[in-house]
């Protein structure tokens, strides 16, 4: 087969990239080599269109044990000899094609990133975006994705403790499925994704290799069109049972000290793991591909290199200790085969039955090595003019606020998500303390270290759409706020950057400014970015999705008993709003979903004000002055109050203090940097003293179950709870899992 | 007396069970590996626990493959000699597949996995808040078996509401007669779908599970060691 | 008249079948050795009112394509009795 620039283009490479490969090799690559470059230089593996800006994010911190991008996931010191490992990753395009397996393998992949470093995953979260829930297609996708996440996570045995889900039209064709895993490891028991030591044997362990997701990495980097449905071989099947055994076997092998390094196989399987570990260790490898256990007969060299078969690991073992390693995998009934060895010249050589099939410098394939880095142009999006021309005065303040409130709590973005989370095992591991005592972030008890971890995922993509710079800041700020309101100290961030086509300068503008905002906020909250993933090309013929830079944040509670919960505790407690009410309805659920306004500025936000507010909340929690804390987010103040009431079936009697404020802005506006707290009257004086000059206002009191707003009786909490609980189910109840 | 928690490939509540028994209930407990063929050092005063999880991925039928694990043959012999056995969730499914308990656990009525707090009621009569987490927990048995379970007092827990009323709405999976747990006729083998080990720690904000262990262990299993109760 | 139609739904041949793989291991543990591969699917029976066996088959195929089988993961075979 003659290899030309047109072969390269069919594999998704650009003509100049083909020229670069020829220069690196000093000759024309054969098909196997070219396909290796095509997957390694795809956006998914190389970050070629994003790395320039990713490097501007803060990546240093006193607690950081490895820098972003150095290992498979971030590693943060939590004291007493333990570290937390966490990462978020997207599986958007596979989930669009096959929602069940797409989501399932997304969960499997992110857990592998965690335990390949030697950590045991103890919590998972997910951040999901779909189209309008009224659409059959959305119901089908939601049902499949939720079923897939549950199928994998429940069997694997890691609790799903939190997450978020939004329904917006822009995600109709291209849903977002982002999964996050959090693990715990003893410092000193981590494993590096490095190859070293000439002559050391290289093993492949776990599942046999089949023709799964051939070139899926490249596939993931191509626009989704109607034709994608024919790209069937890109589907991968996950086997959570196999991964559970792989987890236990890996965590048993690590303490023996027999491993030099380990790398999981995700996108671009063998070629990715061999090149990344070799490049990192400055070595090469000789691999005999016929020794790879296969599920199908007669697999070609390029298929073996690119296969994305799940539940596999590459291990580099100290020579002479092979039997120890093999014994442990045998115990767990897992295949474990030596496929090659480490060499000294930096070259990867792949043989098939003695015949050399590919020979490439490891370094040339990888990010930070030979992979190209691009600077993309960007221009301010044209739709900004529509945002700037929005005039809130043209929106009349509705007369019947109760009616609006009822509609708001029934919006799927706001309503109870139990139809979703009840399908996830949220309690396995007996560490999730938020089931019986909910907080803004999920609080997970890391038993070994006897500390609490506060974990959350956050991103309001409509804010980012309205103002990428501020929206990026707000995503980080909300995550930090959730952790602070739960009694935690923010430690670090992982991000999943979901955007449209980076070659579109308007999309790239969103990307650049969202990252600038994110970076600034991360510096302010002292939360370095430890890693994450970039997913471009999230768009359909109708255009790109909202820019969605999902933030996964982890915080620490030295003593888990210091956690703060979000629910009102007792009738008669006084309700305060910490922060300032604002005459702002911009980009709120109210304005967007009830008034039908697509273009408006982002809600009011100031980074310094946010930081000061969070410091106040942390102080109140530390002094044990407040009984509950719940931040104001989607749906505004009313939703915060009603959500604070559900758990103990209490209610509230509140009045707006400032008569000049629009009532809809008061109760449904989404101005940032606000938190609702409740205070026992006995603590009132201390509360005021701690608050000092920071803005706050008294809203009213906790009642025994009635809801009263501005002197009007709005019914009982049980009536509100019924509406809130059943809104999503009314769409989904006819939709039985297959 | 002591406890042995069997680890099958795919068990994922084994460590939770171990933690609850050891740290919350202060019992002696050891982990057992499914490939072993014997239960060395266990007497009929001791208790073998089959924990929750997805043994063998729960492929084919839940518990169907685990039931043939080498250690299960020893557990069956142990039970037949009067040794105490407790199966929770997947453990309950394995006990039914192995014939140590009658009946079967079918796919939940709504075809969905369900994980949430539910209430169950046993002889004590008080509603206890215990989590469930299963896709196949709908207890089923033929009429004759049900009659026998009823008349021999072998139904140890039923799903109920917070006030102890046994209602359809309180049944998370469509189980026949709201059955959440049963025992065998000799009262030495117990199986239940809800997870008492997930409700034993103050940190988790629910310690109702300790009452389940207390009832099972002391009253029914007539174990000598008193579990520590908060 | 009413035709009984059997539909066999199986995972696509080139895809991993985790269930089949686990059952295979179980059979080997039981000492049933000579089994080389296990794949597990579903059998669905439909009673179809149609003018001819051919029409019944067409209807069943339509049902399979639209709902009973997921073409991304599975193939199906229809037989009319």
Note down, in words, how this protein is organized.
- The complex is a heterotrimer of chains A (738), B (230) and C (81).
- By secondary structure, chain A is of the alpha+beta class.
- Helix content of chain A is 35%, strand content 23%.
- In chain A, a hairpin with a 2-residue loop joins β12 and β13.
- In chain A, 62% of the residues are buried.
- Mean pLDDT of chain A is 93; it is low at 216-232.
- Chain B has 230 residues and is α/β, with parallel strands linked by helices.
- Chain B has one domain: Rossmann fold, CATH 3.40.50.880.
- Chain B is built from 5 helices and 11 strands.
- Chain B has a 9-stranded mixed beta sheet, sandwiched between helices.
- In chain B, α1 links the parallel β1 (3-7) and β2.
- Chain C has one domain (2-80): 2-Layer Sandwich (Mth169, Chain: A).
- In chain C, 35% of the residues lie in helices and 31% in strands.
- Chain C contains 2 helices and 3 strands; from the N terminus they run βαβαβ.
- Chain C has a 3-stranded antiparallel beta sheet, covered by helices on one side.
- The two termini of chain C are 12 Å apart.
- The chains are: A alpha+beta (738), B alpha/beta (230), C alpha+beta (81).
- The interface between A and B is large, with 38 and 36 residues.
SSE string of chain C: EHEHE
Output the strand order for the largest sheet of chain C: 2-1-3
Question: Which fold name is given in CATH as the topology of chain C?
Answer: Mth169, Chain: A
Alpha-carbon Rg of chain C, integer: 16 Å
The interface involving the most residues is between: A-B, 38 and 36 residues
Number of strands of chain A: 27
Average pLDDT value of chain C? 89
Secondary structure category of chain C: alpha+beta
> How far is the first residue's CA from the last residue's CA of chain A?
44 Å
> What is the residue-averaged pLDDT of chain A?
93
């Amino acid at each position: 087969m003659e290899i030309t620039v047109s072969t390269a283009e069919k594999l998704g490479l650009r003509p100049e990239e083909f020229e670069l490969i020829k220069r690196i090799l000093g000759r024309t690559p054969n098909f196997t080599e070219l396909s290796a470059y095509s997957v390694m230089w795809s956006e998914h593996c190389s970050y070629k269109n994003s790395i320039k800006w990713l490097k501007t994010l803060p990546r240093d911190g006193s607690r950081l044990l490895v820098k972003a991008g150095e290992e498979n996931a971030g590693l943060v010191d939590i004291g007493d000899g333990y570290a937390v490992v966490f990462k978020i990753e997207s599986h958007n395009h596979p989930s669009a094609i096959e929602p069940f397996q797409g989501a399932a393998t997304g969960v499997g992949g992110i857990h592998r990133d965690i335990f390949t470093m030697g950590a045991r995953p103890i919590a998972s979260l997910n951040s999901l975006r779909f189209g309008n829930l009224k659409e059959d297609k959305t119901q089908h996708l939601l049902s499949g994705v939720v079923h897939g996440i549950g199928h994998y996570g429940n069997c694997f045995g890691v609790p799903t403790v939190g997450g978020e889900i939004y329904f917006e039209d822009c995600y109709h064709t291209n849903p977002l499925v982002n999964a996050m895993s959090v693990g715990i490891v003893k410092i000193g028991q981590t494993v590096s994704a490095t190859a070293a030591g000439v002559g050391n044997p290289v093993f492949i362990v776990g599942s046999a290799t089949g023709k799964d997701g051939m070139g899926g990495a490249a596939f993931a980097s191509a626009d989704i069109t109607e034709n994608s449905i024919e790209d069937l071989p890109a589907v991968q099947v996950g086997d959570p049972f196999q991964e559970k055994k792989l987890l236990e076997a890996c965590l048993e092998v690590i303490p023996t000290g027999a491993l030099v390094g380990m790398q999981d196989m995700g996108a671009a399987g063998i070629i990715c793991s061999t090149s990344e570990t070799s490049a990192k260790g400055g070595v090469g490898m000789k691999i005999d591909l016929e020794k790879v256990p296969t599920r199908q007969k007669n697999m070609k060299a390029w298929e073996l290199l690119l296969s994305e078969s799940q539940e596999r690991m590459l291990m580099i073992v100290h020579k002479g200790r092979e039997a120890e390693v093999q014994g442990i995998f045998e115990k767990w009934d897992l295949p474990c085969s030596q496929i090659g060895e480490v060499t000294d010249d930096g070259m990867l050589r792949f043989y098939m039955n003695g015949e050399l099939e590919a020979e490439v410098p490891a370094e040339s394939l990888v990010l930070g090595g030979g992979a190209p880095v691009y600077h993309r142009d960007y221009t301010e999006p044209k739709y900004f003019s529509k945002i700037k021309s929005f005039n809130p005065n043209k929106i009349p303040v509705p007369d019947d606020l109760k009616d609006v409130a009822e509609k708001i709590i029934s919006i799927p973005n706001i309503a109870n998500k139990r139809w979703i989370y009840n399908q996830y095992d949220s309690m396995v591991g007996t560490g999730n303390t938020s089931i019986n005592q909910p907080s803004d972030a999920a609080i997970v008890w890391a038993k070994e270290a006897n500390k609490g971890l506060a974990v959350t995922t956050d991103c309001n993509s409509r804010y980012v759409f309205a103002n990428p710079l501020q929206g990026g800041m707000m995503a980080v700020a909300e995550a930090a706020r959730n952790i602070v309101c739960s009694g935690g100290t923010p430690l670090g961030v992982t991000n999943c950057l979901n955007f449209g086509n980076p070659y579109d300068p308007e999309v790239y503008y969103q990307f650049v400014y969202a990252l600038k905002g994110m970076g600034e906020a991360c510096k302010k909250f002292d939360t370095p970015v430890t890693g994450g993933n970039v997913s471009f090309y999230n768009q359909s013929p109708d255009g790109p999705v909202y820019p969605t830079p999902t933030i996964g944040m982890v915080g620490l509670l030295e003593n888990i008993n210091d956690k703060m919960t979000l629910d009102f505790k007792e009738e008669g407690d006084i309700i305060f709003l910490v922060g300032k009410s604002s005459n702002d309805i911009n980009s709120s659920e109210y304005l967007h979903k009830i008034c039908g306004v697509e273009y408006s500025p982002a809600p009011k936000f100031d980074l310094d004000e946010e930081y000061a507010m969070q410091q106040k909340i942390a102080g109140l929690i530390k002094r044990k002055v407040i009984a509950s804390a719940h931040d104001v987010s989607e749906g505004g103040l009313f939703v915060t109050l009603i959500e604070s009431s559900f758990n103990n079936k209490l209610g509230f009697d509140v009045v707006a203090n400032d008569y000049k404020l629009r009532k809809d802005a008061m109760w449904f506006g989404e101005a940032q940097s606000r938190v609702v707290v409740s205070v026992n009257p006995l603590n009132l004086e201390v509360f005021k003293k701690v608050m000092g000059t920071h803005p706050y206002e008294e809203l009213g009191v906790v009642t025994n179950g009635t809801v009263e707003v501005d002197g009007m009786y709005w019914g009982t909490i049980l009536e509100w709870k019924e509406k809130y609980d059943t809104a999503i189910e009314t769409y989904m109840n006819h939709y039985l899992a297959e | 007396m002591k406890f042995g928690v069997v680890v099958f490939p795919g068990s994922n509540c084994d460590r939770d069970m171990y933690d609850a028994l050891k740290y919350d209930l202060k019992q002696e407990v050891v982990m057992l590996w499914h490939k072993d063929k014997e239960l060395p050092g266990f007497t009929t005063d001791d208790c073998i626990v089959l924990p929750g999880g997805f043994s063998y991925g729960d492929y084919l039928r839940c518990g169907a493959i685990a039931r043939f694990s080498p250690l299960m043959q020893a557990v069956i012999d142990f039970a037949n000699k009067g040794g105490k056995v407790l199966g929770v969730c997947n453990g309950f499914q394995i006990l039914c597949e192995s014939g140590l308990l009658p009946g079967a656990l079918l796919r939940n009525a709504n075809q969905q996995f369900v994980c949430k707090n539910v209430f169950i009621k046993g002889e004590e009569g008080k509603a206890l808040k215990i989590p469930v987490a299963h896709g196949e927990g709908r207890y089923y048995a033929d009429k004759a078996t049900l009659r026998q379970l009823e008349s021999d007092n072998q139904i140890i827990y039923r799903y109920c509401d917070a006030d102890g009323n046994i209602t359809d709405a309180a049944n998370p999976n469509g189980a026949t007669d709201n059955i959440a747990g049963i025992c065998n006729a000799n009262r030495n083998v117990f199986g239940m779908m809800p997870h008492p080990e997930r409700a034993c720690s103050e940190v988790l904000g629910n310690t109702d599970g300790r009452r389940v262990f207390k009832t099972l262990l002391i009253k029914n299993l007539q174990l000598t060691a008193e579990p520590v109760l908060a | 008249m009413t035709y009984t139609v059997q539909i066999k739904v199986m995972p696509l041949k080139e895809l991993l079948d985790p269930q089949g793989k686990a059952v295979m291991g179980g059979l080997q543990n039981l000492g049933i050795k000579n089994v080389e591969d296990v794949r597990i699917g579903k059998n669905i029976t439909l009673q179809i009112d149609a003018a001819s066996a051919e029409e019944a088959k067409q209807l069943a195929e339509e049902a399979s394509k639209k709902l009973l089988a997921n073409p991304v993961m599975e193939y199906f075979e229809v037989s009319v009795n």
